[in-house]
Amino acid sequence: MARGFNDDEKQVITNSLIEQGKILFGKFGLQKTSIHEITKNVGIAQGTFYKFFHSKEELYFVILEMEEDKIKEQFANLDIFKENQPKKAIKRILQQMVNTIEQNPFIRELYIGRNMENMLDKLSPELLDKHFKNDSISFLPLIEKFKNEGFIIEEAPETIASVCRSLFLLTLHKKEIGEEIYTETIKLFIDLIVDGLIKEEGE
Asked: Distance between CA 24 and CA 32 in Å, rounded?
């Protein structure tokens, strides 16, 4: 009988699966990358993969979350109040985040065929719920900053996270929106989000 893995070994294998997943997904895409190829590169049996991830789509989602965290971190420490026009600054940051998302190869992969739908179908409700809750929590520091500066934000963090998620999901539907009006549509959507969610006293 094969022995189990201790905690250190589990962490090493998890990291290796993520590393090889990034390499192979980046090279071949989600659909053309097989679990066999990933596990062969890691040096474990194919069946062992399922001790760590339920599907290759779940592994892809974990990598996507890591890419998303990098994007959030890139913009998290920007001082949006130094220009005395914080609403204008947050609009600019949202536009920059959209541009970054559009250029990210792992997110671009979701544009192809039914990759987004296929990935979501393979994810557990618990994993998605955890992801959405983490999204909401990530907005709390920004909400507090605005409130401390005298701005009024009445919507719940969950609603704000959902609205921003809707903005970023629009980047997956450029063709459906119409490429000739896509840029202006995104700009208007950002204006509506910021002006609708963040009110100055007296507005």
From this structure: 9
CATH assignment of the domain containing 26: 1.10.10.60
pLDDT value at position 83?
A: 66
Model-level pTM? 0.77
- Exposure letters 137-175 (e unless 16+ CB within 10 A, then b): ebbeebbeebeeeebebeeebeebbeebeebbebbbeee
- Is 15 in the same domain as 86? no
Q: Are 67 and 44 in contact (CB under 8 A)?
A: no
Comparing 5-14, 15-24, 91-100, 131-140, which segment has the lowest mean pLDDT? 131-140
- Structure token pair of residue 175: 């063709």
Show Cβ contacts of residue 172 under 8 Å, excluding neighbours closer than 6 positions.
110, 111, 116
Q: Are 153 and 198 in contact (CB under 8 A)?
A: yes
